[in-house]
Write a structure and sequence with these properties.
By secondary structure, the chain is of the alpha/beta class. The protein has eleven helices and ten strands.
């Protein structure tokens, strides 16, 4: 996680900014194309940066204000990546792990709290006892689903590793989008992405954008290398871990999160891309409302998705049966329903490939 991501994210529950607690970080050396350990965090108090803007005072906000350090040079926001640490919403006392450069900002009902608190306890020797004592309290959180009708699909996505029998299943992710074993599909992915680019880049490059359901994150990686600032979000951790292994020092912003509960600040993004991902989302109206919230006024959502017959294809039926994930395509009439109460309007459909009998 690059420090600059802190400018764009918020707690999905309290809607407040995060204080960042850093226990491991690495410097990004692009000239030599590698990540190297940094020593700054081993200095007294340096695991805390300047505090965010707090809306109200709590014992945790007092702690971060007392232990804050001066801001580092602005360039460091992009030159250093946080490998391990915590994101803390000091007003609500909620905290979220940063593991292997990836912040996990899931809603309470999708979290594995046993795993999360085991992770917290591995940091006990690195954290001030005052901070550890406040955070080491499971009662802060709730397991209520919040009426999540798509819970079974989401948990199936998150548990994909337990359902995969083929040991080479995830192999293509390490060279995505390339796949020597599926040349035509690889060409299709690149062609579809190329079709999306004019819609993404309209009004100029260097856009702050969301890559929702980024999966192996090759689209996020390519957009970063083109000079944009994409934030890749996916609910399935293994896809993001593979992306970290593939991208190395060219690491884009990646977050494990639920697209229906985006941990992104309101009104900051120039565009939202859903590339071969929106057809996996259960509550699409809620997702569209979230996209509308995080976009600047008048900005667009770009969907690159299969048509309405997608769920009837043999490969889709097999995937739903085998993995328990959702494979439901859409047409323009469906999009109109999804955006009805979102503030988004005037959808346009482009057919990249249409086959009829």
């Amino acid at each position: 996680m690059r420090y600059s991501l802190l400018n764009f994210i918020q707690c999905p529950v309290s809607k407040t900014e995060f204080a960042c607690v850093v226990t491991k970080e690495k410097e990004i050396i692009l000239g030599h194309v590698h990540l190297t350990d940094c020593d700054r965090i081993h200095q007294a108090g340096a695991m805390f940066g300047p505090p965010p803007r707090f809306e109200r005072q709590t014992p945790l906000t007092d702690f971060f204000q007392r232990n804050a350090t001066q801001p580092a040079p602005a360039a460091r926001n992009y030159q250093v990546a946080i490998e391990e640490g915590l994101l803390v919403s000091a007003e609500s006392r909620r905290w979220y792990p940063i593991r292997n450069f990836i912040p996990e900002i899931l809603p309470d009902h999708l979290r594995n709290f046993q795993r999360d608190f085991e992770f917290l306890r591995t940091l006990e020797g690195s954290l001030p006892q005052e901070l550890f004592g406040i955070l080491n309290n499971p009662e802060i959180f709730t397991k209520q689903t919040g009426g999540d009708g798509g819970l079974s699909y989401k948990t199936s996505e998150m548990a994909i590793t337990s359902k995969v029998e083929n040991p080479s299943f995830f192999g293509p992710g390490f060279i995505a989008p390339y796949n020597p074993g599926a040349t035509e599909h690889c060409a299709y992915l690149i062609r579809l992405f190329s079709f999306c680019l004019p819609l993404i880049l309209e009004n100029g490059p260097n856009k702050l954008m969301l890559d929702a359901g980024c999966g192996y994150s090759w689209t996020t990686e390519w957009l970063l290398k083109m000079g944009m600032e994409p934030i890749g979000v996916d609910i399935t951790r293994i896809y993001l871990d593979i992306a970290v292994a593939r991208t190395g020092p060219f690491l884009p912003h990646l977050i494990q999160a639920d697209t229906e509960n985006l941990p992104i600040k309101a009104g900051i993004l120039d565009v939202v891309l859903c590339y071969e991902a929106f057809h996996h989302i259960p509550d699409r109206a809620k997702a569209m409302q979230g996209f509308s919230r995080v976009l600047k006024p008048g900005k667009r959502v770009v969907l690159a998705e299969p048509g309405g017959a997608h769920e009837e294809a043999a490969v889709s039926v097999d995937a739903m049966k085998k993995y328990g994930i959702l494979e439901r395509g859409m047409e323009l009439s469906d999009i109109n329903l999804y955006i009805a109460n979102s503030g988004l309007r005037n959808p346009v459909q482009y057919r990249v490939l249409e086959i009829s009998d």
